[in-house]
# Entry
Amino acid sequence: MNVRADDLSAVPGDPRLLRLAERRELRALRLRGPRREEWIRGRVAIRHAVARWLPRASRCRVHTEPSGAPLVVGVDCSVSLSHDGRWFAVALAPGRDLRIGVDLCRRVHAGRLAPILRRFIKRGVQLDPVVQWAALECVLKLRGLGIAGLMGSDARVRRAGRRVWVAGIGPDASLRVIDRPEFVVVWGSEERQ
Amino acid sequence: MTAAPHVSTAAVVGQLRTLIVTAAPDPVQAAAVRGCPTDVPLDTVMPFSSVIALGVIVAVEDRFGIVVTRHAMQTAFIGGATLEKLAVMIQRLQGES
# Structure
């Protein structure tokens, strides 16, 4: 599994770079202003990731599942995308055997995350709230769950070095974490059932 | 938490616009919420991430003196949360309190 975190401005936001089906999706979504540009850059970032890590892959496009998760069409791989402000992270694993999840959370959220964790997670804040949040979001993505899945959950999160473990939202999950001055990225994978 | 007096939908929507901009880390990007139609998914006009969404729920509970249940939140977020759906959720929960 490969993961890249970068400045979203490093990815072109030109709608002409989108495939025909992607343009149709974009029109249907009726995104405005910065959200529209963010969406375009996200699709391009995923296709760049496919080209970089699966260089022999054929032409692909990115389809958006009803949950909002991206699905690469035309190349056998699993992807996950996260963006927050001017940063994004994309994760890719070859084949379709794995479900993968990545979450990027900016440190600027630290102050607003503590009350959210206290309100929605029975055990409240258990470690750096930004790392905890990114880990929880990553697990939600892995399992295809929405944020309501967190409400009243007994999620337990612990960290040792570059590993984070999440228990209490389905099976235990072992995730990887990197800290950067502006953000945290957490990612992981598990076998599809 | 004390229940706030019931207010009209327009007033609730007005307060929601302010709460959302306050909950967002990038006020400039969130500013579009101040004038967007009430039936448009918030995620289409600003980055309405999970952090912001749950931050808004916490702020709404505090401001309106309600407890947002999982079911109420799921209902409000189906197909994308809008100002209208959030206002309906608040008024329903106020009616139940």
The radius of gyration of chain B is 12 Å. DSSP finds five helices and no strands in chain B.
